Amino acid sequence: MTTTVQEEDTVTAGSIRAPWRIGTRGSLLALTQAGTIRDALIAVGQPAELVVIKTPGDLAPTAPVQTIGVGVFTSALRDELALGGIDIAVHSYKDLPTAQDPRFTIAAIPPREDPRDALVARDGLVLGELPAGAKVGTSAPRRAAQLRALGLGLDIVPLRGNIDSRLRKVSEGELDAIVIARAGLSRIGRTAEITESLEPVQMLPAPSQGALAVECRSDDPQLIEVLSGLDDAATRAAVLAERSLLGELEAGCTAPIGAIAEVVESIDEDGRIFEELSLRACAAAIDGSDTLRASIVGAPEDAAELGRTLARELLDLGARALLSAADEPEPEDGSPTQAVNAPAQDFTNTSPMENNR
């Protein structure tokens, strides 16, 4: 199902140029994200319009992601792109499967929003000020695992709904706090709600969190060329490293894996400035009982190999066992798995995708 959000066509030399159709989900966050790409294209003289597409994840907002399938928020956009119903699809990059589809090209990865996670808590509290037993909502097993590993005695509970409904759970007292992606709040102008931005030493974000993927058909060189002007090389290198790590671990976006890469300036022995890519990652037990961390530094042009190398290091440290345990179903008698500080809630029914976080 598609809905077109019309923009005025641009008149050039007495003729009307056909607008490029940009596919997006219909949430406020998704529309805002796609709108930045539309506006950037219009700024360089290319008319563009948004086309809203319903995805399986939108049509079944409370169903377990595992029962809907891979790419619950991206498959419908890609189907429409393949059929020619849209020219461009804008995704939250972390929603995309790690396996590349040869039909499509990620023509641009614009500059990334702040990838950190954010705490929104009652009374302006920061994470360390929340009392033991405080109810903290999150949609992601990755966040739940890392919160438990901090040993604060928090009661981590699943969180459903769009950004507004999640924020209301705090303001109305249903929850003491929630943890969501800072990027989403920033894009819709709600950063004033944040009581603490969580540093990577506290919580590593999801691979490619805060980044957009601007996708088009691989057989459209004109479109690829224009969209490439929106690409940010440092963001692309960082995202490539993070997603290569995720792919090597054979883990999806619901896995308790955190990773963040940054292109930073360094100085060699002769005082010359050069760029390096720094990648940090973790694999966590869902109950918080164990967290494996590793890091690597190398050249930005080697981003993919750096990600794969760090993934292999995590596997050598025992990450496979942690990831396998996270995939195990609840015991048949319904009893919770053993947890650290608080029971491990069932997160399989929540949407892990950034557009809902």
From TrEMBL:
PANTHER family, per the entry: PORPHOBILINOGEN DEAMINASE
Organism: Nocardia mangyaensis
Superkingdom of the organism of origin: Bacteria
InterPro entries, sorted: HemC, Porphobilin_deaminase_cofac_BS, Porphobilin_deaminase_N, Porphobilinogen_deaminase_C, Porphobilinogen_deaminase_C_sf
Coiled coil: none
A Pfam short name: Porphobil_deamC
Cofactor: binding details: Binds 1 dipyrromethane group covalently.
Record keywords, A-Z: Porphyrin biosynthesis, Transferase
A single BP term in Gene Ontology: protoporphyrinogen IX biosynthetic process
Protein known as: Porphobilinogen deaminase
UniProt lineage: Bacteria, Bacillati, Actinomycetota, Actinomycetes, Mycobacteriales
SUPFAM superfamilies named among the record's database cross-references: Periplasmic binding protein-like II, Porphobilinogen deaminase (hydroxymethylbilane synthase), C-terminal domain
PROSITE patterns, alphabetized: PORPHOBILINOGEN_DEAM
Cofactors required: dipyrromethane
Enzyme Commission numbers on file: 2.5.1.61
Annotated GO CC locations: cytoplasm
Gene: hemC
Subunit structure: Monomer.
Region (Disordered): 326-357
Compositional bias per record (Polar residues), positions renumbered to this chain: 335-357
Record family assignment: Belongs to the HMBS family.
Catalytic activity: 4 porphobilinogen + H2O = hydroxymethylbilane + 4 NH4(+)
Family matches, as NCBIfam families: hemC
Its biological purpose: Tetrapolymerization of the monopyrrole PBG into the hydroxymethylbilane pre-uroporphyrinogen in several discrete steps.
Domain annotation Porphobilinogen deaminase N-terminal: ranges: 21-224
